Amino acid sequence: MPTNTQGRYREMAAQALEDVYRRFWTDEDGGHILSTHCGFAVDKPLMIWETAMLLLGMEMYYEATGDPRTRERILGTWAHIRRCFTDEQLTGGFGECPNLALDDTGWDCMTYLLAYRVSGDPEPLELARRCLLGAYDHWKDGDDCTNGLWYNDRKQYAGDRWKSSYLVSLLVSALEHGEATQGTPAYSGALQAQTMQLIGWTERTLRRDRVKTYENGRQDGSSFTVEAVDCLYWTDYNQERETKPERNGPDGGLRPFAISEEGSVSALFGNMGMAAVNAMLAERTGDPRCREKALETAHSLFAVYNHNGALMNDRDPYTDAALLRPFIRHVLTLPEIRDDERQMLYTTADNIFDNGQRNRGIYTSCWQRTPKNGLQGKTRGDSACLMINATSVSLLCGAALMESLGMRGTD
């Protein structure tokens, strides 16, 4: 990042947050984020994850600027969440709102850790511990976590069931909980042991680091071989699943290079998150292989997700920036990350801001632009909803955090 642009991304992020606040903020009841339902802003959320997508960006902006008003808004929203949900809803009731599926629960746990970091109050730290352990117990496959976690309950999706890299939000939350509580009575050895089991399953099953044949992988019982070796991570994994071409093995294994805005077999948030997980493990254990794996995934991410110098919003435009903060803090701080790779995030932020200003402060899922009309690629999802806007604005807030940490690009 050239020195004469210092503060540029802070200003862009501030403007983008104000744009979002105009539509998704209320000063009622001390002030809080408004959720959305069927395209309309609502005061009382059914879920937490929708609000979380904006909170995650707000935290990065607060860390970049120390802005006290942003801290007040975060804490006001956390107080609103506490009013809307009981302790039992926050830490249990898996398969129901707000912990409807594995990913919802992970985003909720990330919210609790965020509330702890901003407030210093140990209560959300304890909520995170209870929720994480409960989620592991509810969605595990077998007696422990060595076989991974199911994404959903059988009663959902007409009985269709699978496993998924969406669990990365739980893994990051658990590692952050361990870091925050290490050496204190709040530390949970059981939580950390089960988390390591899940990380092991994810590395063995979802990491694309070798040619692999899946016996009885197709619906007709025949096998298939996947030759994608890029150290990215599959999004979903099928196990006796009857609704997909791949009965057993990675969902999308028969089209392994389908990573695009149209429907991706991998996921930006999952790759960011697993790179961060390995970097965090390297920091904790000093294991050089964990550091190597974090860098392998990061370098591949920047190569595969590069669309005209900006990141591709590939699979889930509602959550694709959710793991950006740990990716910035644990991966982009590594000296092996190149300036041109960091520049991709700055360029993505430039595109998002430009597109948002052309759209009267509405931040869509499109992260590309052209000189002629400012837009390239498809706009997917409901641009009127909080999460689409929050995900794109979080990229801007992440650029502001990078700028505050002195991370240079090449532009």
Give keywords.
globular; 411 residues; 3-stranded antiparallel beta sheet; mainly alpha; 7% strand; two-stranded antiparallel sheet; 13 helices
Task: Describe what you observe in this structure.
- It is a single chain.
- This protein is mainly α.
- The protein has helices spanning 8-24, 49-65, 68-84, 87-91, 102-119, 123-139, 168-181, 189-205, 268-285, 288-304, 324-331, 339-358, 386-404; strands at 25-26, 32-33, 35-37, 40-42, 163-164, 212-214, 224-226, 236-238, 249-250, 306-307, 310-311.
- It has 13 helices and eleven strands.
- The protein has a three-stranded antiparallel β-sheet with strand order 5-8-9, with no helix packed on it. The chain has a two-stranded antiparallel ribbon with strand order 1-2. It has a two-stranded antiparallel ribbon with strand order 3-4.
- Helix 2 runs antiparallel to helix 3 (68-84), helix 6 packs across helix 7 (168-181) and helix 9 (268-285) packs across helix 11 (324-331).
- The protein is globular.
- Mean pLDDT is 94; it is low at 372-376.
Classify the beta-strand content into a percent band: 5-15%
Q: What is Rg? A: 20 Å
Helix and strand content put the structural class at: mainly alpha
Give the tally of β-strands: 11
* Overall mean pLDDT: 94
> How would you describe the oligomerization state of the chains in this entry?
single chain
- Biggest pleated-sheet summary: 3 strands, antiparallel
Spatial strand arrangement across the major sheet: 5-8-9
What helical percentage do the residues reach? Answer: 40-55%
Q: Could you give the distance between the termini?
A: 7 Å
The tally of helices reads 13
Stretches with pLDDT under 50, minimum 5 residues: 372-376
H/E element order: HEEEEHHHHHEHHEEEEHHEEHHH
- Gross geometry: globular
